[in-house]
Design brief:
mainly beta, Tachylectin-2, Chain A, 5-stranded mixed beta sheet, 4-stranded antiparallel beta sheet, 21 strands, about 5% helix, globular, disordered N terminus
């Protein structure tokens, strides 16, 4: 462990010396080796207070995996024993997508989306648990919804607290990434709350989705998945990032290009066997930031698998995958 930790420290120190714009020739690091149940899509990873690591994901009834060390992962069933009945109003097979896992006020909060491929008649649901373990969740129904008349899609939720208020980033295609304020007691969108616009692409189909917002220093960082997922080894997913001093934006990249104009620094792209990384989340563990995502294994028929990398920060305050 000590040589690996020293190597990571030296890598972070070298990255801190690089200018933020010198990224075109970057060599992306491979995810750290893991064993056990590696198949996953859109992972939300967290180190629980009982010492276990949990990863919730798209599929099943919100698929779950558990680990004692963050390296050996075992199948742990699903968040729910069976789908809540309201899911069927948004998906004929009650298929949930892209969960988000957070902790506040003595409870774990699980957000997730229910939708159908290619449509924005969608809903984001919310559930709570004292332990965060699969099988312990109480569902509380919809937190936010979208309809075919809306210019956004209510999927891919991500929760962030800012200045004593609770916010949810969300969005997929349909003009990109949005944000809405939540009631911290119910975990649901405030009635009549404005829907802020955080990021989009210049042209249809506005291929940006899967937001995740992190506070580091005086900035909020918006991570998002660009281009196409779900095509196995042919997936073109990649992770880009911008930052803002306000949680609701405007977010810009290191060149000053707004994410509302297609900006975003390239953080992680496909390389070698690791095609189409995306569906990302960030979790904190032992005082360090870690990036969790899925990639499509080009050496295993494009199977989606769990990727985890340490997330460092340059001297100019930009994230770097280690």
């Amino acid at each position: 462990m000590k040589p690996l930790r020293l190597a990571a420290t030296l890598t972070a120190a070298l990255l801190a010396l690089l200018p933020t714009t010198a990224r075109a020739d970057v060599t992306y690091p491979d995810p750290r080796p893991i064993t056990g149940q590696q198949i996953i899509h859109d992972p939300a990873v967290r180190h629980l207070k009982n010492g276990l690591y949990v990863a919730y994901s798209t599929g099943g009834v919100i698929g779950a995996r558990l680990s004692r060390d963050g390296r050996q992962w075992d199948d742990a069933g699903n968040a729910f024993a069976e789908p809540p009945r309201w899911w069927y109003a948004y998906n004929d097979t009650a298929d949930p997508w892209a969960p988000d896992l957070s902790y506040r006020d003595g409870r774990y909060w699980l957000y997730y989306a229910v939708s159908s491929w290619g449509g924005n008649h969608s809903a984001i649901g919310v559930a709570t648990s004292r332990s965060g373990l699969p099988g312990t969740w109480t569902d509380h129904g919809t937190a936010f919804t979208s309809e075919t008349t809306d210019p956004y899609n209510a999927i891919d939720p991500a929760i962030v607290r800012a200045d004593g208020r609770l916010w949810m980033a969300f969005g997929s295609y349909w003009t990109g990434i949005r944000m809405v304020e939540l009631n911290p007691k119910t975990g649901k969108a405030l009635p009549g709350a404005p829907v802020h616009h955080l990021a989009t692409r210049p042209d249809a189909p506005y291929a940006v989705e899967g937001p995740y917002v992190v506070r580091h220093g005086r900035y909020y960082y918006l991570f998002a998945s660009y281009d196409a997922c779900c095509a196995g080894a042919n997936s073109t997913y990649k992770i880009r990032v911008g930052r803002s001093t306000s949680v609701t934006g405007p977010y810009t990249d290191s060149t000053g290009t707004p994410m509302l104009q297609g900006g975003g620094d390239l953080l992680l792209s496909g390389h070698g066997r690791y095609a189409g990384p995306g569906g990302q989340s960030v979790f904190r563990d032992h005082g360090e930031d870690w990036l969790a995502y899925h990639y499509y294994d080009a050496q295993d028929n494009g199977t989606p698998k769990l990727g985890i990398n340490k997330l460092g920060w340059t001297k100019d305050g930009w994230p770097a995958v280690l």
